[in-house]
Amino acid sequence: MPPPLTKRKKTGELYVRTASVDAAIDRAAGLDLDAVIREARVDDRGAPGFMEPECLLHLVRSTRLDNSDDRFAQLFEILLDRVARSLKGSIRPSSLYDPEELRQEVADRFVDLLVEDRNQPGDGLDYFEVRFASALAALRIDVLRASGRLAAKEDHVEDMHDQEGQPLPALAKQLRQFSQAEGAEQEKEHFRNELLRAIDRLPDHERVAVTLVLKGHPIEGDDAETIAKLCGVSDRAIRYRLQKAYEKLRRELGEGR
Amino acid sequence: MTTTSTARGARDVLMMFATEGEPTPRRLEAYAKDHPELRRELTELAVEMVLEPSRPLPPADASTKATVASAWARFQAGTRSDVERAPVRSAAALPNVFAGFSGAAFPRLAARLDVTPLFLIKMKDGLIEAARFPRAFSKLVADEVGHEVDLIIASLGRPSAIPRGMMAKSDGKPEAGAKQSFEEAVATSGLTPEQQERLLNMARAERGSD
């Protein structure tokens, strides 16, 4: 078993890696450098031998103990290549910021955590060994928050052309039905991925509203954190965004759905 | 939980949301209630956690390669020890005392000093600790290369010019600053026993006179 993480939750429990990451770390410990590097380069989630980023990060952190600059340099490059490409996928062109600049800024913050960990081993990177992609998303959003770019993004109001559209519950029902693909499990999985990718291509405001509907967030209600409250806009704006998004998704994924 | 967040506190809240569970409406609602100032950020994060797994990793290109190169430089700068960093600034002003001895002139200089070129290369590249390096030999070098003896001693204090990993000890343990002690350098530079004895005697004589 690899050494446990040291970061604790507010409840006092230790953060833990997934069982598959622990197993991958154990397995990598028995491989020579060439084999580890070969496996670390497999970054397609669906490919056999895919090395999870949580495992790759652990290997980078553990080079602190083996005094192998070559091993460290190669693993560092592979890890940062994945980070840079992941940021390229998640930070798209925007009128509110320079995507290249933002990607570099997030990568810098991640490297700062690696530096901190190398100079004085701590628990700052433990989050990344638990859920790498989600932790990287949190870091990216924190950089946006700290620089005020997220506020600028949310304050932008689209031109609604004074359309009222359909009532919210009807729209939500349509969208949720739309995501219920029929057919075998594999087909459903395929359609779900296609749908998520199509949602990911929507403009920011529509992407957020549709995803929240699919996750089952309440559309209306006085006490609950409704989608409008979460997005900081009116119910009318949400209705408009959902309607626009629904039309685009139907066009992209098939009118018959 | 708090209703205001410091910069680090805000990041921790986002990290906790990202890593302690799924982005369900119930969790998002609870976090948004406890941290209303982070509602937008948490909402954006919840959406990312849903969409990210379906996103294929784009291929590497010039911009991602530039990010990796910049990350490497940042890491190197951030992890260089204080011992290594401090001399870098002062060493920038030091001239290369061996600059006039390139090509065949370098082994000839070594022969005049009665050492091997390898020993002299270690001096040139700052690979020998200055602490126990005999001043008498520095004086011989100074006379040959035409610089002040203090400059020769100062140039020994520079950080080594090769990566740390190349100077790892055989037992695999880290070696601070990638430098050899004077005695190690004497023993591992291809010097004859007589040459070694001469250099070690210089050092002993100076330690004895301390």
TrEMBL record, chain A:
One of its GO terms (biological process) is DNA-templated transcription initiation. It comes from Methylobacterium tardum. It holds the Pfam family Sigma70_r4_2. SUPFAM superfamilies: Sigma3 and sigma4 domains of RNA polymerase sigma factors (SSF88659). NCBIfam families: sigma70-ECF (TIGR02937). This is RNA polymerase sigma factor 70 region 4 type 2 domain-containing protein. GO terms for molecular function: DNA binding; sigma factor activity. Residues 193-249 form the RNA polymerase sigma factor 70 region 4 type domain.
UniProtKB/TrEMBL annotation, chain B:
Residues 164-210 are annotated as: Disordered. This is Uncharacterized protein. The lineage of its organism: Bacteria, Pseudomonadati, Pseudomonadota, Alphaproteobacteria, Hyphomicrobiales.
